[in-house]
């Protein structure tokens, strides 16, 4: 099994800082209507059938309705591209970057991770007894750009305003070659935000359930308000770990420290949670990650959880949430309640199922991660780089834990990760000539298995 080993976390944090300070902004946003229209027409055959039907065709119809004058007006009204113009340009970039082979291998690797994470919650194999989601049935498209905003997602609720039936996930361009730990944040974006907004009523039900659990068990309405008002970000952290395992926990801690070093000069988790910040304080997210890992279904989950608590404690100074001061024991207890509630509460919006029933991390996942780590380090030859039962989340988890442990330097393991993910994307049936929504749908149901393992 993969025991927690964080001896080279500092080097991974420095890799994050280097990526955060990179000034590459990616391809310029399209600002001329006719030129964009022509480039999009050339892109038609580069997307698989599902994405032509649910993304490409409706987007071109939207452009026709918008017209050249409407396009110019949209750019004028949103000059910093933070609202409708930003979303429009990001949809266009997602199509064009795929078509025009921008950072081709890294883009395909990125798309494979996002597709796998989405598949993990929405495929027929994992979603037995639960209706299909209400909003989006196919994985988001990916793009590079807007490094000032870091990793982010436009959910299918937002893209529906342009007729699109899936989300858009962004990474800063530097993360196509640097900042390995940023890839561990993709579970937060895709298995988190995109999933939470795909089922009508899910986010609101989670918000109320978390509030009630904290109010009942801690008798602290202020704390219940604080966590529940940040349910989108909070639940996304939990869902990312349910999909990617403990690697997402240590990845989150190292990623935040690296970003904070780039922007503030301090490579520590922030202890302050401003009232207007939709995210919980960094230090609380560290404890939340640890307690989510504690509930995972693999044998050394407690060992990992304890190690993550210890790592988070290194940055503990004095927690303030708005004007309220929070002691460490209360912070840790609240994190445990929130993690348990989000993962284990049976929700009406999921037909009485819990999120942790749909996706979790098991001993088999740890075994696969260990085999991939052996492949990266060269200590074990894996035929064609393929491990039985391997998904993209395993590859990212293996890369993160390998780099953090110091088995390989971050740039070396990053290159191995993207190469392996690219080969998986090339074989992904959802990106082939058929209408396959999720790779997990193509799973035979056998009456008998030769092996019990």
What is the overall number of helices?
Answer: 18
How many β-strand stretches?
6
Which series of helices and strands comes N to C?
Answer: HHHHHEEHEHHHHHEHHEEHHHHH
Q: Point out poorly predicted stretches.
A: 441-453
Report the C-alpha radius of gyration, rounded.
21 Å
Strand content: under 5%
Question: Structural class, judged by helices and strands?
Answer: mainly alpha
What would the principal axes of the Cα set say about the shape? globular
**How is the biggest beta sheet arranged?**
3 strands, mixed
Mean pLDDT: 91
Distance between the termini: 15 Å
Order of strands across the widest beta sheet? 1-3-2
Oligomer: single chain
**Fraction of residues in helices?**
55-70%
Could you please describe the fold and organization of this structure?
- With 453 residues, the chain is mainly α.
- 56% of the residues lie in helices and 4% in strands.
- The protein has 18 helices and six strands.
- The strands form two sheets. A three-stranded mixed β-sheet has the order 1-3-2. The chain has a three-stranded mixed β-sheet with strand order 4-5-6.
- β5 (319-321) and β6 form a beta hairpin.
- The longest helix is centred in the N-terminal third of the chain and has 29 residues, at 49-77.
- The protein is globular and about 60 Å long.
- Mean pLDDT is 91; it is low at 441-453.
Notable characteristics:
3-stranded mixed beta sheet, disordered C terminus, 453 residues, 18 helices
């Amino acid at each position: 099994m993969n025991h927690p080993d964080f001896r080279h976390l500092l080097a991974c944090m420095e890799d994050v800082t280097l990526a955060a300070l990179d000034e590459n902004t990616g391809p310029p946003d399209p600002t001329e209507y006719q030129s964009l229209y022509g480039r999009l027409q050339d892109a038609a055959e580069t997307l698989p059938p599902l994405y032509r039907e649910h993304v490409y065709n409706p987007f071109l119809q939207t452009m026709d309705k918008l017209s050249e004058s409407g396009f110019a007006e949209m750019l004028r009204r949103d000059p910093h591209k933070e609202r409708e113009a930003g979303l429009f340009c990001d949809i266009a970039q997602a199509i064009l970057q795929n078509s025009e082979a921008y950072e081709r291998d890294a883009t395909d690797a990125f798309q494979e991770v996002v597709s796998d994470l989405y598949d993990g919650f929405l495929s027929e194999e994992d979603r037995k007894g639960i209706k299909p989601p209400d909003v989006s049935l196919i994985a988001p498209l990916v793009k590079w750009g807007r490094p000032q905003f870091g990793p982010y997602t436009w959910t299918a609720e937002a893209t529906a305003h342009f007729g699109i039936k899936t989300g858009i996930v962004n990474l800063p361009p530097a993360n196509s070659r640097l900042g390995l730990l940023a890839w561990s944040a993709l579970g937060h974006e895709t298995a988190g935000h995109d999933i939470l907004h795909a089922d009508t009523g899910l986010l609101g039900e989670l918000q109320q359930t978390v509030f009630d659990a904290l109010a009942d068990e801690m008798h602290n309405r202020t704390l219940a308000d604080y966590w529940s008002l940040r349910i989108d970000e909070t639940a996304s952290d939990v869902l990312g770990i349910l999909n990617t395992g403990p690697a997402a926990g240590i990845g989150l801690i190292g990623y935040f420290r690296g970003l904070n070093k780039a922007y503030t000069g301090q490579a520590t988790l922030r202890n302050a949670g401003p009232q207007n910040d939709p995210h919980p304080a960094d230090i609380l997210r560290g404890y939340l990650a640890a307690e989510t890992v504690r509930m995972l279904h693999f044998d050394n989950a407690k060992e990992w959880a304890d190690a993550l608590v210890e790592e988070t404690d290194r940055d503990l100074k004095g927690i303030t949430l708005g004007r309220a001061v929070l002691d460490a024991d209360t912070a840790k207890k609240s994190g445990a309640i929130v993690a348990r509630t989000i993962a284990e509460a049976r929700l009406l919006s999921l037909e009485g199922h819990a999120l942790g029933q749909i996706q979790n991390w098991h001993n088999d996942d740890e075994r696969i991660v260990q085999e991939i780590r052996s492949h990266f380090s060269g200590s074990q030859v894996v035929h064609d780089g393929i491990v039985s039962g391997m998904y993209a989340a395993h590859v990212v988890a293996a890369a993160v834990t390998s780099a953090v442990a110091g088995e390989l330097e971050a740039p070396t393991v990053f290159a191995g990760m993207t190469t392996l993910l690219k080969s998986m994307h090339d074989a992904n049936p959802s990106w082939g000539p058929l209408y396959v929504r999720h790779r997990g749908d193509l799973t035979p149901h056998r009456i008998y298995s030769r092996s019990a393992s």
